[in-house]
Amino acid sequence: MEGIYLQFSLHVPMNVIDLVGTVLSWGIFIYFIYYFYQKQEKELTLWKACLAAFAGVISFNINTTMFHTDLSLPILPIGVWLLLWYASTRKNGAWERYRPFAWLGFLSNYVTIVIMILSLAIHNLVFPKDDLTTFIANYEHAELMATHPSADEVILDVERLEQQLPLFEQSSLMDLSWYEEIAYGERSEQNEQFPYMLTGTYTKWGSGLPAILYVERDGKGILIELPDEQRYFRADDSVLKGGGIE
Fold first, then answer.
1. What is the full DSSP assignment across 127-169?
2. CB 17 within 8 A of CB 119
3. Are 6 and 150 within 8 A, CB to CB?
4. Which residues contact 38 (CB under 8 A, 6 or more apart)?
5. How far is 142 from 200, CA to CA, in rounded Å?
6. Which of 7, 137, 158, 209 gives the lowest tally of CB atoms within 10 Å of its CB?
7. pLDDT, mean of each 10-residue run, the chain (246 residues)
8. 214 and 232 Cβ atoms separated by less than 8 Å
């Protein structure tokens, strides 16, 4: 957003679903290391088995984006090849002992990706981004902060906010004239469409969504600024008082 940039602190709750997914990924990885260690026919010490598995994780990846999330798809098993080369310099069937752990490490990359995608899908179901209550779950200490010189002298009506919160619907910003005014107009003529920042509100616990909230000049729109996207919500009644707003 254009205007006066202010230092502020955000309460960023932990992403519980992502945490569970990470623990699950590690749990599966460690379980299968121990499983193959118990099933091996030729003896291999546990620390070497772990080292071979972690070496197998090394790979050449192709980066892609899915669900607004960067993913690295493993293509070439670099770690497996390195272990194969190392085992070829050894005797007594070294590669046969390392092989299951090396491939386990490489395949664990795909398990991590699958769990990550599932976590994203579950996160979108539990914390839908098309629902404003996901981003404003706690508003007891909500305050309004002017971030642009064109802001009027208004205050936040918390009671109205509480009443209107379930009625806000996601919409699209069709009129971009406000942006053109800011980008190309004289500073004295700038008229920011979202001149207020809404502070003191928290997203739903466990969502881990670092959202910045801006309130529209008429108090009927709220713009959600996320790291990778924006969401705009609109209601029929204003949540502001003063400045000629009824």
1. S-TT-GGGT-SB-TT-EEEE-STT--S-EE-HHHHHHHGGG-E
2. yes
3. no
4. none
5. 4
6. 7
7. 38 81 96 92 85 95 80 92 90 86 96 93 94 92 88 88 92 60 50 88 91 92 90 93 65
8. no
